[in-house]
Structures are given as C-alpha cells and as structure tokens.
Amino acid sequence: MPGKRRLLLIDSSDSARTILFKEISNRAPELDIIACGTGKEAMTAVKRFEFEIITTGISLPDTDGYQLIELIRQTPKNKDTAIFVVSGDTDTRVTGAGMDDTDAVTAYFDKAEGHKSLVNFILNFLGTYNELPVNVLYVDKSATSTAITTGILDRNDIRYTHFRDAVATIEFLKQDLEENPGSSFDLMITDLTLDSSMNGFELIQAVRNDLQLDYLTLPILLMTIEPGEDERTDFTAIFGAGTNDFITKPVDEDDLLSRLQTLVNIKRQSEALNT
User: Is the pTM for the entire model greater than 0.70?
Assistant: First the structure.
C-alpha cells in the first residue's frame, strides 16, 4: 500500500481505545493510528483515508457494528480493507457462510483474550513488524548463484538449509513434516534449473501436490534467468506450478529481501487468521 500505513480503531470505550492506541504505538511507531468512539467519527475517517486494518466493536453509541461495516465496504478507499470485529459475543453474522461482500468480516477476535493478544493479532496480520524469515529452505545447484544468494542471507542473519537437488529436498521435507506438522520452514527458494531428474517446476508441484503444502503454509520463490530479447517469461508455467512469486538472476539484494518479506507476511497473516 503506498503512503503511510494506517490503522483504524473503533471502540465505544475510552479506556479500551487508549490502551490499544498506546500499546500499538509503542510497538509499531511507524503506523498511523486513528481511534474513534462512534460510527459517525469512523465514517469521516474511512472516507478520507485508506486503512490496512479496521477493528470495530459490535455495539456503538450511534450504530450497530455490522451496519457500520456495510457502509465502510461501500467506500472506494476501504471496500477491501481487512476488518476485525472485536467482541465478547459470538454472532452468526461473523462466521456465517451467507455474508456477501458488503458486510464481509475478515476475522473475529474475542475480547476476553485481552488487549495484548489483540495487539499481537493485529501486528502479525500487518506482517511488517515481523523479523525476516528465520528459516528458509534453499534449493540451487549452481555454485555461483548459491554463493550470491547465501551471501545475502548470511549478511541479513537469515537462517537457511541448502540443497543442490530436488529429490534430496523432498525427502528432507517429508522428514520435517513428520516432526513439524505444517513445516518448520518460513518459505522455500528454488532455482528453476536443478538436475536431470527433476527441475524447479517439478519440485514445486511435488511440494504442492504430494506433500500437500499450500501457498500459505510454505510460500515458494522461484529463481530464473532473465528472458532474452526474443523470449517471453512463461507466467503460466511459473504460477501454474504453484509458485507464489519469482525473481530473475542475477539477484538484487534489496529485491530479494523485499520479496522474502512479502512472502513471510503472507504466511504470518494466514497464521494470525487461523490461530
């Protein structure tokens, strides 16, 4: 999202808004936080600003929380914003399958879990405030490419396990899954060109289909060469194989780190929503 990252807190309780505002500000000082106590105040904010997350209670002084969400979904700036309902009462409209896009709730949070858990939930979903991936599975047979990539990982204190061929990688992942359901790795980086028995596409397909590790559980970044002037990037093959993203070689350090951060954010957001 371009520009300043923003969070909107909607809660009728002055004390609850103050506690959340202070806690999030201390842990994420770069985040612009707006706190509102009424639906009218909230609508003024959502018409003016684009938010990454909006949290709201169900009972507000001047409106029902779900009516407010429906109005928010009709605003151009926040029709797709993640909206969390924070309440002590489960409501069928939160988890019901019959919701349409105008009143869709991204997630429900039980306020009985406390404000610290809510803050962790919000920051995990945002992802930016997580460390870079701490455990990367890296597959590459090229000595030159491996030296460049592992150098970047080492300089940025990113832990990794390196394999040169796909078959050994799959066997290792099988063992890892027996010990760590869902995989202990934050993401996988693989080169397209591996060995004669299995290339990068086939490795990714095996991870997705045979090991049943989906896009959210184990994000995958594919490394490939820049296409020649008379060639085109085969996007159908890249994403059809099950790749989350791809990067061309020679790898730029800032570009690689940015893509790794994006992929780990995907994983963290999924974990936050399913915890």
Answer: no
